[in-house]
Amino acid sequence: MQIEYVRLSPDDTEALVAFLMADPWPFHAGVQDPEAIRKRVADGVYDDADNRTFWQIADGERAGLVRLTDLSDATPMFDLRILPRFRGRGLGKDAVRWLTAYLFDAFPQIQRVEGQTRGDNVTMRAVFRACGYVKEAHYREAWPAPDGSAHDSIAYAILRRDWVSGTVTPLVWDDEPVRR
């Protein structure tokens, strides 16, 4: 499969609306209203000094969307969406590897990249681990769902030094001081 990444352009507004409305995106928070999406595009939410969005093109078709946020911070974050008919083909891993390299290559001030997913999104959690990201946080019942329930939110990150060396620095979870 031929995969490339193409930066979102102002002419892509209607394609973006169609893409975001094509799936309920159960593991994503966000806007599901066409007018609100158009306003967010006009306001620079998808592309400005602090945000960049890219189409993931697979064999000539728009298969996914990669949104990079907080680019002026030392720790940017990202949102990744892949249309259902393209899932299960390795596009998630390709996108995470691509965006990690893009961020570390294009922004020398970045020292780590972070992403979050719902605790029950086991596929994305496996993608994070396969791409060298380490689980750093587990926020209990912190991800509100449209039905009023709350899911756990899990944060993963990769350090620049781990990316450069191809290693994974384990996190020490049991570091609480002993109470006496």
Q: What is the molecular shape?
A: globular
CATH superfamily: Gcn5-related N-acetyltransferase (GNAT)
- What is the radius of gyration? 17 Å
Please report the total strand number as a whole number. 7
Domain N-acetyltransferase: 3-161
GO molecular function: acyltransferase activity
InterPro entries: Acyl_CoA_acyltransferase, GNAT_dom, Ribosomal_N-acetyltransferase
Protein name: GNAT family N-acetyltransferase
Outline of the structure:
The protein is 27% helix and 31% strand. With 180 residues, the chain is α+β, with helices and mostly antiparallel strands. Helix 1 crosses helix 2.
Describe the structure.
This protein is of the alpha+beta class and 180 residues long. The protein has helices at residues 13-21, 34-42, 91-106, 122-130, 160-165, and strands spanning 3-7, 52-58, 61-69, 77-82, 112-118, 134-144, 150-159. The chain has one domain (3-165): Aminopeptidase (3-Layer(aba) Sandwich), CATH 3.40.630.30. The termini are far apart.
